[in-house]
Amino acid sequence: MALHIALVGAESTGKSQLGVALLDHLRSQTRLRCALVGEYLREWCDREGRTPRPDEQDAIAREQWRRAEAAAADHDLVLSDTTPLMTAVYSEQLFDDRSLYPFALQVQARMDATLLMALDLPWVADGMRDGPHAQQPTDRLVRRALRDAGLGYSLVTGAGPERLQQALNALGPLLRPHLGRTDGLFGRLLQRGENLGGDWSCELCDDPACEHASRTAARQACDPTSD
Predict the structure, then answer these.
(1) What is the C-alpha to C-alpha distance for residues 9 and 115, in angstroms, rounded to an integer?
(2) pTM higher than 0.85, yes or no?
(3) How far apart are CA 2 and CA 78, in angstroms?
(4) C-alpha span between 168 and 30 (Å, rounded)
């Protein structure tokens, strides 16, 4: 069964760039068959030349998950940029519509790891994004949805290589059982339980207890010596 890794967060927080960096790294440093499922909402907006209406959101969310499931059929690991959770969050933020959350959180619960992007990168306008003023409200809604559903996540901060290293550190406990000594340097480091660099931090956290607790719980769940 394929591992599902979710990349979520507000607009212009580096989800797509991190997804590509993770895909390249895991493909070169492990024998895992990895796939990256891009954001269908972005594809939809580019094709239609506009943002969706409220009644179009549900189909977009379901297509995002359909593509992730299709990729899982012949891959060991699927990176999702993003998940239906982001469509649900946008529906609430823009249309005051919370009807997509049940499906979105059902899908999110199937993620083996969730990486939440911090709001620490420069804003990049692209003609479709709402603007930097929307980042914090989106971030709060994502955190609230995950927290209320009891779903853990790891906050990823920094830029470029640092962001990638933090993501790899967060994914280490999940990936370790699936890697062997014949994998690349990344796999060998994980087999020895070594840190990959980029200490995890949550300096932008608006709920420190929640993030630290979810991070610790995820590590303990993957560590058979933590009893």
Answers:
(1) 8
(2) no
(3) 7
(4) 13
First to last CA, the chain: 27
CB 111 within 8 A of CB 4: yes
Tracing tokens 């993957």 back to the chain, one arrives at 222
The Cα–Cα gap between 13 and 93 comes to 17
Burial of 97 (0-12, 13-18, 19+ CB in 10 A): middle
**pLDDT tens digits along 90-128:** 999 999 999 999 999 999 999 999 999 999 998 887 666
User: What's the farthest any 2 CA atoms get from each other in the chain?
Assistant: 54
What are 155-174's pLDDT values in tens digits?
Answer: 999 988 999 999 999 998 89
What is the edge-to-edge ordering of all strands in the sheet holding 77-80? 34-37, 77-80, 3-8, 113-117, 154-156
CA dist 211 to 78, 112, 143, 204, 207, Å?
24, 16, 9, 11, 7
CA dist 132 and 129 (Å) reads 9
The residue whose two tokens read 């994502």 is: 142
Q: 78: helix, coil or strand? A: strand
- Count Cβ atoms below 10 Å from residue 206 Cβ, excluding itself: 12
Distance CA 224, CA 159 (A): 32
Distance CA 218, CA 25 (A): 22
Q: Which of 2, 145, 18 is nearest to 73 (CA)?
A: 2
